[in-house]
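Predict the assembly for these two chains.
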Amino acid sequence: MNTQPVYEARDIVRSYGSVQALQGASFDVRPGEVCSIIGDNGAGKSTLVRILAGVEQPDSGELRFDGEATVLSSPTDARRRGVETVFQDLALANHLDPIQNMYLGRERMKPGILGKLGFMERSAMRADGRQAFEDLGATVRNYTGPVGGMSGGQRQAIAVARAAAWAQNVIFLDEPTAALGVVQTRGVLDLIRRIRDRGIAVVLISHSMPHVLEVSDRVHVMRQGRRVAVYEAAQSSVEELVGAMTGALDGKEAA
Amino acid sequence: MVQTSVRPAPASTANQVPFTARLASGLKAQAMQIVLVWLGIVVLFSVLSPEAFFDSNNFRNIAISVSILAVLGVGTTFIIVTGGIDLSMGSVLVFSGVVSSMSMGLVGDGQGWSSAVVGIGVALLSGLCWGLLNGFFVAKAKVPPMIVTLGTFGAALGLAQVLTGGIDRRAVPDVLVDTIGFGDVFGVPGLVIVAACVVVFGIVLLRRTRFGLHTSAVGSNAEGCRRVGINVERQLIKVYALAGLLAGLAGLLNLTFFRSTTIAGHSLTNLDVIAGVVIGGTSLFGGIGTVFGTVVGLLIPATLRNGFVILGVEPYWQQVVVGAFLILAVYADQVRRARAVRGGSRPRRFFRLFTHHRKDS
């Protein structure tokens, strides 16, 4: 693949007090590709994702969007550029149903005076939201019950589908399979492939090497606040990735 | 949304839930169970005392006795749905009545509509200000709601006593007493009409609007709301301001009905209202609740008190029974939340007696 990256980070530095979480980390993702970020605990994955999602700002370094330098001052900024993030704790509102969660914060209002009074296009959201879940193949069994009563796999699928429905360019998934069983994990991995097939860049942060290798096109390895290697998943192995992660192997230095 | 607005899904037909299923899920809702409990109480008293209890005048009395609490209950339902609590509404009611009465005395001879309009405005404004104060400290200063409203509970009552020297004011324009306090339309008391309007407004606001949805969402997962760009602090301030505004309105209603500021009469109102909200199925942990449930939750104690008086039972028993209701209502909420955590499965009633109460979720 030699397409231009849709989203790129160069030499990001971020420290918390005396701890340097990121020491010049770089990252890039291309449209329609699944790329993973792996690394041991404390390697800086989460910090990097929080910066890329606009939750935190870097001390120095540059974010480039479609080749243009940009500054994200909030998650809303990132969303406006079509970047969505599913954090590890899902951030669904447990008492609301899947559709209400999908449109939370982006409700469609009725036209005219009713909309000004705060009334929403409930039936339109219901129909379109349902369609969006079905297009993504997220099997939601109950569209009207609170998501808090659903299984972990269902909730994960809803959280990922919500992000995917709104993401136009990039979607970050932080440990999307961490607490899931075998079948649910398969469902989420399939969902990732379908999102990629829509031309959206998927960035997967995971500890599970087999899943990373199975679903990714490229794998970014982070160690001590830097990206130390990038591998083509098809030509790599769990041993190689673990070696690069722990520093036991000499990886290809990232460009 | 990316590519979803094009096709009007055939989903609309699949959305049609069969009537029986809707009935079943409706009956499972705590608000409906509570209605059945209330109807049971009504039937019981009606059988025991067909003439005195089952009488339109008596139901009118019950409705009047619930009206002011219902106006307070609407605001408190919103607050509890956000996961907060309000202890201050009884004092805000008294304070608003006091400043309203004082300002009406200052306008003209304190009788006509001009002083009445000023009085209404002052009562609402006073309630709104207390609500904004509560909301500011809860949302911006991050002081726990129980402490903030305990503080304003004392402060509002104290200021009302400072302003009046502790002596109740009785100046109320007759035009207000004749319309709201003791007036009626086709036999429905003015007080009940105002309360019913507030309740309908509250039901529509909580169930049908974005404001209501965000109120539930903030109570359900505040951090998640922040991540999707909802201004959680502003939403909380709005909710507390709404509750304050309604407490101000309740102060005005109280003034026109009792023709007195009743300074000493509302020290336990907050507990009555919170009990009603909780009996009505609103979870103290936030996220879910209904205004309709609150109204029924307030009707139960009022009906019990009324029925016990008619039957000649010592009215103190009412407190005992309401206390038991309160605990049972919260127990039902716990069971429901634990069930939600288990993933919607519903163990048999018998086995439920032996399951541990889970405090997570």
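Confidence is low (pLDDT under 50) at residues 1-15, 343-361 of chain B. The interface with chain A takes residues 1-5, 7-9, 11-12, 15, 17, 205, 208-211, 213, 216-217, 219-221, 223-225, 227-230, 287-288, 339-341, 343-344, 361 of chain B (CB under 8 Å).
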